[in-house]
Amino acid sequence: MITLNADFFSKLTLEVAPNLLGCCLVHDTPEGRTSGKIVETEAYLEDDPASHSFSGRTARNAAMFGEPGTAYVYFTYGMHFCFNVVTNIRGKGEAVLIRALEPLEGQELMRKRRGTQDIKKLCSGPARLTQAMGIARENNGTDLRRGSLRIFSRKSADFEISRTPRIGIKKGTDNVFRFYIKSSTYVSR
DNA sequence: TGAGTGATTGACT
DNA sequence: GTCAATCACTCAT
Question: What is the spatial distance, in angstroms and rounded to an integer, between the CA atom of A89 and the C1' atom of C11?
Answer without folding.
Answer: 38
